[in-house]
């Protein structure tokens, strides 16, 4: 029998007072809902897409002979997803990778990947050689240094390009979405130097588990799937007159690379850092940006 357990209220801290991952999900909803988006979709296009979506549901219901009990569990669970503020999380995990793939087909530069629910614009500006803001507890993790150059497709350097970077701490929390973290922890907007070069020091991220305490996590558990994403860095690289790229970088040999719950890895986005004499893991990665 399948019952998807009703999760605890999202913004209440866990009984021991620690932050909850579901709290991060509802913070992501609040951030997203603060802005109204528009798309220039014609009524005909909307109608075609919606009809095909419902036809897809019809075919599924018919093929699996979906029962009334299953239909009611689905309805209940969708209500939980909304009340738990997990629509951004659910959609970014299970849908965004296809949207990204389709929309990046015409570009030749650095590969993109999903943005996910935890991007924040306007992070603090940092010079080309910098260390991301972090707490002393973060600084105990293995130091990680990424350096390289931002160019156009012909290899001409892009001076003054910006590399927005954000990643989770060792516990999987993103600043701005978890109240116990200082603002802008492990985030920054790095400006490349006159040769388009940069060198960012941060800490090596750990694999990330999408919240297991909310409705998305309950569903994943009930279906017998796993909630893990491989360790990753998020980046948004922009330069004047160039198409900005939103991407993620992963670590060769790490766990969950072949079974990312968000299906967002690509072979071109694998880093293979090597330790230097100071024990810092160091890697070069260059970004090539398409024209606008
Ligand atoms: C989710 C979180 C991430 O950090 C990410 O990169 C993609 C998806 C999520 O929880 O939905
Ligand atoms: Fe992420």
From TrEMBL:
What's the cofactor? Fe(3+)
Domain of life where this protein originates: Bacteria
MF term (GO), any: catechol 1,2-dioxygenase activity
Q: Where is the composition biased (Low complexity)?
A: 7-25
Q: Which Pfam families match?
A: Dioxygenase_C, Dioxygenase_N
Region (Disordered) residue spans: 1-25
What NCBIfam families does the record tag this protein with? catachol_actin (TIGR02438)
| Name of the molecule in the record | Catechol 1,2-dioxygenase
